[in-house]
Amino acid sequence: MLTVILMVILFVFLIFPHELGHFIAAKAFGVQVNEFAFGMGPKIFSRQGKETLYSIRAVPIGGYCAMEGEDTEEAGDNPRAFNNKKWWQKIIILLAGASMNIFIAFVALCIVAGVGGVITSTLGNVTEGGPAYEAGILAGDKIVAVDEVETDSWADIVTVLDERMSDGSTVDITVLRNNERLTFSVIPEQSESGDYKIGIEASIDHNPGMAIKNGAIATKDLIGALFSTLRDLFKSGDVMENVSGPIGMVQVVSETSSMGGLYFVYLVAIISLNLAIFNLLPFPALDGGRIIFVIIRMITGKAISDTVEGRVHAVGMVLLIIFAIFIAGNDILKLIGR
């Protein structure tokens, strides 16, 4: 039951904000939106606005934004139809969905950074009687250099310390205390496991500003990692083996739910960014494919009609459905084989 609830939450946070992004951008540019729905399937509640029908549907897995002239073969003479808007307006509307997914991922990663905390280069604890304590280092000191190697993060500090202390050699640690740089010579102490320690622990920062900064950095890094993974995936040729759909996601959500709430929030960020990247692929029926058509038609004029574009997107949608069926079958085979 918990997995089902988490799956519903996951779909809501992935698909609905995507369509909300399209809706906000469409309204901003005066596009006629015929219906904006939360969920899919049969309608269980609706309210007619001045122009748009707002509805809640039975299956809470996302939603959709039905714009006039987006999927019809001809937009007619309606100046407020999507296909009759300026090319740059259409591109912004199409990008708005993926942009919202990126924003959701950013918020999720800020939550992870804020709640989980960020490891800083400021010392939260110095073991009494330990090598660092005996050398004069105090809790609250900020390490800025190790053996004259400037350090910007705790990861830098650990890397340099592991390298310099591998044989028990004395290390010079420079700290910032009351805006004054102080350097202390520390003789490492060998632990029972054979490693050398100096008895220091980093402090954990839950500052909102730091969480936002690290959330932005994590979002950028994760986007880069996902693009690299996608490139390597197509190079390897094992697309079907390494791609999962909703059925495969059930297994991932089930495993993640036992690890804690922050892991689930991080999963939301990863899948949300995956959805953004997938939707921007230059394939018919996807936002990326529609953007390609907008650019081509902007350059060629009326060389491609609404009818031709509509049919290409229809074929693309059929191919995407077939692909989704194959992915679902592959997910089932993986579950059976576990």
Q: Could you characterize what this model shows?
A:
The protein has 338 residues and is an alpha+beta fold. The chain has helices spanning 2-28, 87-116, 131-135, 154-164, 208-236, 239-242, 246-257, 261-279, 287-300, 306-336; strands at 33-48, 53-67, 118-126, 142-146, 149-150, 171-177, 180-186, 189-190, 196-197, 200-205. The chain has a four-stranded antiparallel β-sheet with strand order 5-4-6-7. A two-stranded antiparallel ribbon has the order 1-2. A two-stranded antiparallel ribbon has the order 3-10. A hairpin with a 2-residue loop joins strand 6 (171-177) and strand 7 (180-186). Helix 1 (2-28) packs antiparallel against helix 2 and helix 5 (208-236) crosses helix 8 (261-279).
Q: How many angstroms does the end-to-end distance come to? A: 21 Å
Note the run of SSEs as H and E.
Answer: HEEHEHEEHEEEEEHHHHHH
Give the overall shape, derived from the CA principal axes: elongated
Mean pLDDT over the full residue set: 86
Low-pLDDT stretches are none
Strand content: 15-25%
Main β sheet profile = 4 strands, antiparallel
Count, helices: 10
Secondary structure: number of strands: 10
Radius of gyration: 27 Å
Fraction of helical residues: 40-55%
Summing up helix and strand content along with how strands pair, one would put the structural category as: alpha+beta
* Sequence of strands across the biggest β-sheet: 5-4-6-7
